[in-house]
Amino acid sequence: MTIRRLLAQLTVTDLDPAVAWYTALFGRGPDARPMAGLVEWHLADTYGVQVWAEPDRAGHSTVVLDESDLDARLARLTAAGIDHGGARPATSSRILPVTDPDGNRIVFTGR
């Protein structure tokens, strides 16, 4: 057996406003809607992000995404109107944390 793909999941209260927010975050709409209450962004062939409507668990997720161009990501987030505190130094790279409207944390890392 071999695991071939990873989909990180973020839980939200209401899917429609979450889809709008994550569309702004990723700069495009979801790639799949596999079932009611679930959308997916396929960020590469082997990994992606799911956004799942589960109100009782909403806001307790964290995803870390390694970004090839953190400055470009920062500019894109600013242009999309997504609040952030800017990139900050970390031990071996920089981080750019953002929080969705439910309180889930998305952390972009890069140089």
Overall geometry: globular
- In CATH, what is the homologous superfamily? 2,3-Dihydroxybiphenyl 1,2-Dioxygenase, domain 1
The value of Rg in angstroms is 14 Å
CATH fold-level label = 2,3-Dihydroxybiphenyl 1,2-Dioxygenase, domain 1
Query: What is the helical fraction, as a range of percent?
Result: 10-25%
- Indicate how many domains the architecture comprises: 1
What about the largest sheet?
Answer: 4 strands, mixed
What is the count of helical runs?
2
* Nearest-integer average pLDDT: 97
* End-to-end C-alpha gap: 35 Å
Weakly predicted, low-confidence segments: none
CATH architecture label name: Roll
* Main sheet: strand order: 1-4-3-2
Q: What's the total count of β strands?
A: 8
Q: Strand percentage, roughly?
A: 35-45%
Output the structural class. Answer: alpha/beta
Elements, N to C (H/E): EHEEEEHEEE
Describe this structure in words.
This protein is of the alpha/beta class and 111 residues long. The protein has one domain: Roll (2,3-Dihydroxybiphenyl 1,2-Dioxygenase, domain 1), CATH 3.10.180. The chain has two helices and eight strands. A hairpin with a 5-residue loop joins strand 7 and strand 8. The mean pLDDT is 97.
